[in-house]
């Protein structure tokens, strides 16, 4: 599966690639940036078994959960001050 993003950066895509590889150890996931200024950025995901779209969805869900957990931890630390 290949997804094309016209208006995004590697800062956004890199964590998604990491989480895809965490969710499915047999997956191949990478991104290609054709040109650093003009883009577009292509996210490429291949899986041995299953649907790449499902793996991407699970990875984004897991990333969202972890971001929420980090946000809660930061809020608790701020309350302590």
Discrete helix count? 2
Strand order in space, largest sheet? 1-3-2
Q: Could you list the spans in which at least 5 consecutive residues all have pLDDT below 50?
A: none
- Structural class estimated from helices and strands: alpha+beta
Distance between the termini: 47 Å
What would CATH call the architecture?
2-Layer Sandwich
User: What is the CATH fold-level name?
Assistant: Gyrase A, domain 2
Task: Determine Rg (CA atoms, Å).
Answer: 15 Å
CATH superfamily: RNA polymerase, RBP11-like subunit
How many extended strands? 3
What would you say this structure looks like, in words?
The protein is α+β, with helices and mostly antiparallel strands. It has a single domain (2-80), classed as RNA polymerase, RBP11-like subunit (Gyrase A, domain 2), CATH 3.30.1360. The protein contains two helices and three strands. Helix 1 packs across helix 2. The longest helix is centred in the last third of the chain and has 29 residues, at 52-80.
Helices, strands, pairings?
Elements: E1 2-5, H1 10-23, E2 28-33, E3 41-46, H2 52-80
Antiparallel strand pairs: 1-3, 2-3
Defining key terms:
single chain, 2 helices, 3-stranded antiparallel sheet, Gyrase A, domain 2, alpha+beta, 81 residues
Question: Care to give the gist of this entry?
Answer:
By secondary structure, the protein is of the alpha+beta class.
């Amino acid at each position: 599966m290949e997804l094309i993003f016209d208006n995004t950066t590697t800062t956004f895509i890199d964590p998604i690639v990491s989480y895809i590889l965490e969710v499915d150890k047999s997956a191949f996931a990478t991104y290609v940036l054709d040109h650093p200024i003009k883009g577009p950025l292509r996210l490429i995901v291949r899986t041995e078994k299953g649907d790449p779209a499902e793996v991407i969805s699970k990875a984004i869900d897991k990333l969202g959960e972890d971001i929420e957990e980090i946000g809660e931890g930061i809020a608790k630390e701020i309350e302590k001050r």
